[in-house]
Amino acid sequence: MKKQHLTLTDTDRTTLESLLAKGTLAAKTFKRGTALLELDRGKTLAAVAETLHVNYNTVAAWRNGYRTKGLDGLYDAPRPGRPIEIDGNQRAYVTALACSDAPAGYARWNLRLLADKVVEAGVCESLSHTMVGTILKKTN
Question: What pLDDT sits at residue 1?
C-alpha cells in the first residue's frame, strides 16, 4: 500500500482548485498548488517532482510548508530588502532643483553638481550622482 504524503481538508482542496482554475496566480504559486493537489490525489513526491520539473526535496518542502502554515505556505514570505534611504520629499526636492536654473558659472545642471547642492542644502546626508540620475530617470 502506498503512503499518503498529504491529505488536504475539504475547504483547502476547494480553495486550491478554485485558485488554480482562475489562472491569475504567479507561476511558482501555481506549481506549489498543483503539487499539493497531486499529493492529495495519492501521487508520490517523486512523481510530482518529475511532473513539475522540480527537485524531490522541493516538493517535500512545499508539503511541509502546507503542514505548518496551511495555504499560506503557497506564498513566499516577505523579504526584507534594502531600506529606503531617500523618501518622496527628498526626491521631489532633487527633481525641483534639476528643473530650476543652473547656478552662476554653469550653463546647465550635471548630476554631480545636483548631488553636491542637495547635500549642501541639508536635504540628505549623502547622495551620489548615480542616485540623482536614477531619481531623474523616474520622472517625466
Answer: 42
